[in-house]
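QA checklist item 7 of 12: single-chain prediction sanity check.
[x] sequence parsed
[x] length recorded as 370
[x] structure emitted
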Amino acid sequence: MRGKKRRSSWGSIDSVSPDKHVIRYMEASPGGRRRRSKTFYGSRKGAELELARLRVLNDVEGAPPVTFSVAWATWVEPWIEKSVAAGKLSRNTGRMYRSSWKPCEERWGGTAVGAPKPMEVQAWLDPMSKEQARSALRMMRKAAGFAAKFAGADAQWAGVDYDLPAGAVRERKSGTYTWDEADALWLEVRGTPLEGAFLASMFGGLRVGEALAMSAQRLARVEVRGFRFCAVGVACQMGNRDGEVTGEGELKNPQSVRTALVPGRYGDALLALGGASGSGWLSDRGEGIPMGHGSARAMWGRKRLPMQNLRPSWRTMAAYDWGLPDHVLEPLMGHKMQGVTGKHYLRPDTAQIAELFLNSLDEKARLRIF
């Protein structure tokens, strides 16, 4: 049964069913205003939000004040999608932004962007944790910024310096492991499901999520002048939950898709782990799926430096103990090379990087690694 058609002074919504609505509106075009219609699938409230969004886009001067919900749907959400598609934001960052937006939507969704008073915003932030408050306020300001830019909204509250809740953000332990400490730590994790991820991060520079998502099919033996490497194809990463592997190429940024090199005895051990893995996942705990960040943190424990510190430990060790220069290390880390030449022209393959690796490697380090 068709629902009652509800009209506003600018457009209308005809509810065909509880989850199907026909929206009619006036579209601004170079030739003048044109009647348009679109079918919206979802709730009535969602249809009303879509009509409000269309009015902001097509009737800027006559539209009512932009609400936070409309600002998010009109500008912030498309900006996130476009940034992820262009590789400027990772999918995981996009998910974090949307998650941080939820408390803003609940409290301020139907409120005009310029309406909040600083005292109201401060009272809203006070019960949150420090990190929640920081993230939510960042998204609230992001919506206000777009509304100010495209609809002339006056959000004076956004410029206020708010007091974040007293609860401190959990500080990550700083510090790096020395080469001797790394070798000793390898003995501690040997035989555990974390051994492969440890070797790839500590001796190959992978991020934790990348290392946990390693599979045997992405490992390959590379030999240059008799010296052996394990080449690790990095193309996906783990989420927080076990088995939560991202899609191909869903990494921190586009250049993070790369081939890393784990040299000598460390690479030999990694290849052996890959060959012995029944499921193919090197971080499999025996359930046929790779560990997520949560399980890895629990198994790693709190007495050690966090697993995130393995990558900077490798970078420090590779530069100061192994003698490797930036132009070798940066591609292995998945970083852009500096300058126009580095950004647009330098695309060394795995064999070339391995050759440069050997040519730059300190002789004492070579004897210890290989």
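[x] summary fact logged: The longest strand covers residues 20-29.
[ ] second reviewer sign-off
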